[in-house]
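Dear H.,

Thanks for agreeing to be a second pair of eyes. The structure we're designing against is below in token form, covering all 331 positions.
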């Protein structure tokens, strides 16, 4: 390859070097730039480096010149600040939705957005102990396919699995494909869920994205638009504990005033709430009644109880009694 070809890439190499090796604490000298270019078969003189830096500054690159014996040039601003990238790395590593392999790949890409000197600080951010991670590597393509279905107004089809005691994937419906109209992707309990309309049952349903297999678009247009138009996604996720479906009910809770923050955190500031006596409250909530809801209630340690309706209160009592029976150690 002729040397003139490399010479035409001079400016790109300067940008690459500044991006990868410089920051506020690590400026590079003109001499270092000339030596770097020479290793890539590009001849340069000091004056040409000065001119190139000036052109890059005119172009808009935030290149700072440092004077003095240890002076030189460094790239002062980037798309992301180091503190922002640390947060992103922590989110990637701590998210159980992202598989270990994809976590490593994403973190390597995030490291490429800072200098090699700062990349080491990102590496030190990734220790999160005992974190369960997803195992379905196709999840990222699932998300992309769902978004394509939404954008193209198309139904999608897929298989759906659950785990067995033997830790094996078992396909629901004996492997038959689901065919639904995708509308919304939402995040709940550290998992991605697709909210969709199933024409076969005339129901709005949700599916864990990491449990979907063999996903593809169909040539059928989406249906159920009218139902989805009336869906309040925020309310839907608040009332559906762990995204487990159940019969929707209006439930009255009564409890200690110290638990008001827990109620607001779960159901939002618009929850119907009033004081009950000096140290208590009553709250009216809309919830999908399920074992997951009862489990959440039990986790409040008896400081919040179900008052109405009577059938839901009795279901909760039955749930607790069943727990006690199941916890009894056989003689």
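And this is the sequence the design step returned. I haven't edited it by hand at all.
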């Amino acid at each position: 390859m002729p040397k003139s070809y490399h010479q035409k890439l001079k400016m790109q190499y300067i940008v690459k070097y500044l991006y990868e090796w410089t920051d506020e604490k690590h400026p590079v000298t003109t001499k270092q730039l000339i030596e770097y270019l020479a290793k890539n078969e590009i001849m340069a003189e000091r004056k040409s480096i000065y001119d190139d830096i000036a052109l890059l500054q005119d172009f808009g690159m935030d290149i700072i010149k440092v004077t003095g014996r240890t002076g030189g040039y460094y790239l002062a601003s980037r798309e992301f600040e180091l503190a922002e990238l640390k947060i992103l790395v922590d989110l990637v590593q701590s998210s159980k939705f992202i598989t270990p392999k994809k976590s490593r790949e994403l973190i390597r890409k995030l490291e490429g957005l800072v200098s090699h000197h700062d990349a080491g600080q990102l590496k030190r951010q990734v220790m999160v102990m005992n974190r369960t991670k997803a195992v379905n590597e196709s999840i990222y393509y699932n998300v992309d396919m769902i978004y394509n279905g939404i954008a193209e107004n198309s139904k999608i089809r897929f298989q759906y699995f659950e785990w067995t005691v033997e830790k094996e994937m078992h396909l629901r419906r004996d492997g038959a494909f689901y065919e639904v109209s995708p509308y919304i992707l939402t995040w709940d309990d550290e998992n991605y869920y697709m909210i969709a309309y199933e024409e076969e049952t005339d129901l709005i349903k949700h599916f864990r994205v990491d449990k979907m297999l063999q996903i593809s678009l169909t040539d059928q247009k989406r249906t159920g638009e009218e139902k989805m138009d009336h869906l309040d996604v925020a309310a839907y996720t608040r009332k559906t504990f762990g995204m487990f479906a159940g019969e929707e009910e209006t439930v009255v809770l009564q409890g200690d005033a110290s638990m008001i923050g827990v109620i607001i955190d779960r159901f939002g500031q618009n929850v119907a709430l009033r004081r009950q006596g000096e140290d208590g409250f009553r709250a009216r909530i809309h919830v999908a009644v399920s074992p997951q809801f009862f489990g959440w209630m039990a986790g409040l340690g008896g400081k919040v109880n179900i008052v109405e309706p009577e059938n839901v209160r009795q279901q909760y009592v039955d749930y607790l009694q069943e727990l006690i029976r199941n916890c009894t150690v056989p003689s």
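Two observations from my side: The two ends are 83 Å apart (CA to CA). The longest helix spans residues 310-327.

Warmly,
E.
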